[in-house]
Structure formats: C-alpha cells, structure tokens
Hints:
Elements: H1 10-48, H2 55-91, H3 94-100, H4 105-143, E1 156-163, E2 166-174, E3 181-191, E4 194-206, E5 211-220, E6 225-234, H5 241-244, H6 255-267, H7 273-287, H8 291-295, H9 309-336, H10 341-363
Antiparallel strand pairs: 1-2, 2-3, 3-4, 4-5, 5-6
Amino acid sequence: MTRVSFFPSRTVALYMARLFLVRSFAVLAVLVLVLQVLDLLGESDNILSVRGNGQAQILTYVGLRIPELIQRFLPFCVLLGALITLATLNQNSEVISMKAAGLSAHQVLAPLVLASLAVAIGSFAFNDRIVSRATATLDRWQAANYGKMPTGREGQSNVWVRDGDDLIHADAVSGRGSQTKLSGVSLYDRDGGTLLQIVTGDEARTTGDGWTLTNASRFDVTRGTLAKLGTIPFANGVRPDQFTLSSVDGAGQSFLGLNRAIRDLDAAGRPTGALKAALWHKLSGPLSTILMPLLGAVAAFGLARSGQLFVRAVIGMALGFAYFVADNFGLAMGNLGAYPPLLAAWGPFFLFLLIGEAVLIRTEE
C-alpha cells in the first residue's frame, strides 16, 4: 500500500525550512539595524535635550523601539526571505528536481508554510508579551517629553477628564475598577470658563463615590496664594472608568488586556469598532506570514534560464506589497467605521489567500 505524504521528505523539508528561516531573519536583522539607526538620528536630539539624559537613555529608547520595528517589518522580511529562498532553489534547478520526482507545487511550498506558521506563533507571543509593553512604556515616556522614565509598564499617561465645568488631569493612571490609582493629579476648578483655583496632589485613589487626594495643595488664582491641604476628598461622582477608558490604545495593550478594555467600553456604552478591529488584527497580523511563501511562490516555478526569474520575483514582491497596502487600508476603514471589525482585520488576509492559491493553481497545478 502506497503511503502518501504531503511533505517531500524530512531531509528536504528541514533543508528548505532552514534556508527560508535563515534568510528571513537575516533580512530582518539588517533591516531593523538600518531603520533603528535612521530613527535614532531623528530622536537622539530630543532625548539628549532633556537635562540628565545620556547614553543610558539612548540605549533605553533603542530597547523600546526595536520590538516595534520587528513587529512592523517581520511579515515583509518573511516575504523577502521566501522570494530569496524560492528564487535560489529555482536557479539551482532544485525545484525542477522536486517536481520531476512527482511533487506538486503545494508539496514544494509545504515546508515553507509550516515554518511560517511557527514564525506566526512566535510573532504573536512576542507581540503580546513584549511589543505591547514596550509600546505602552515608550508612549508614556514620549508623552513626558523624554523626561522622567515611567516606572509602570501598564496603564495610561496624560489623561484628561471633565467633571462639569472642572477639568481633572492625571500624569499616569494604573489599575482597574476599585484598584485605580492616579498619579500627578491636577484639578482645575472653573466657573463658567473662568479658572478659580488649581488643586494638585501626588496620588489619588477611589473611595467608591469619589476620590481621596494625598499631599494636596491649592493655588488661588484670584488671590495668588498657595495653601497646603494634606489629604482631601475630591471629584465626587467621577467614576474610575472615566480615567481608565478615556483613551485606550490598542497597540499598547495585550490581546487579553485589550479584550477586557473592549468589554468595559461596551458596558459603558462607548463605541468599540476600531478597537475590535485592532483586537482581531493582533491575530491576523502575525498570521500574515503564512501568506508570504504563497504570494512569493511565482519565483519558484518556471525555467530560470528563460530570463523571467527576475520578473517572477518582482511579481511576487508586488503581490506582497499589495497585501500590505490592502491590510493598512482595511484597518483605516475599520477605524473610520466604514468596515465591520472582522472584515477590516481578516478581509485582506482571506482575499490574498485566495489570490495566491488562484495564481499557484492556474500556473503550476
């Protein structure tokens, strides 16, 4: 009884997967290095302009910025890695040998697709555990104009909440529900648009129906006097979710954290379409690496000596770029509310999956 295997053989599969992964991550390393140097040229002046900042802060910025660059350009580097690998195999007549042995085009691509799936799983874990925290910390640091480095890895910074005519500003917000804590609090007491006094404090915690502000002081705008108040109650009737849900950034949240924030926003009756699209894209984004061998497959087939190998590689690259354009367009439409969240996140993925399959079946199968 003949045994049918989808993979060519274990040796060939490991050989192709190793070629593909080495080339993809080599391209990623070079690209991230170049982009980080260019980015640092533009940001180093802003970082060093703050008194006390030096080489340590530069290295901190690099450590926070590199994960974002890896997340953004990993699918593109997987596309280039697939193109380089498949074009090399074609140039050396290795693809012709595999097809002469009776392998179909899908069997030739199977090791690369499986390796891409492993990259996608690792990319999701990397994005969820490292990139989200690095992005949130970098956003808070940039909001402080590269001043004092924020100590927390979660929460929000530079949050404004309106309480009637009054405005409340918090430098940082952490925790959820009854555990919400405000740091660097300023209350602008206004009457009909006229500023009467400014109350500031180090920290505020919720008491259920209001807040307690510690180490508070009050500046009377009319008299120009400053008074120490100690610990005082303030902002009665202001809910914790008005601070924690005032500006939820999908890029700075993990998958489960963003899902919780969406549930809280839904319960508060606030729009969540854009955040739901960002939530689903946390899955479809890493999975886009699976498409890259399929979109670059046109470089694997056809006679290399016909002079069309370069043209085929360009076509594969064009298909990959078209996917990235469609993906960004779908997210933009989702943010505007023109597309439903599922369509905005998954529409480009399945569209180009069908396009890649159609091209492969039409030309090679």
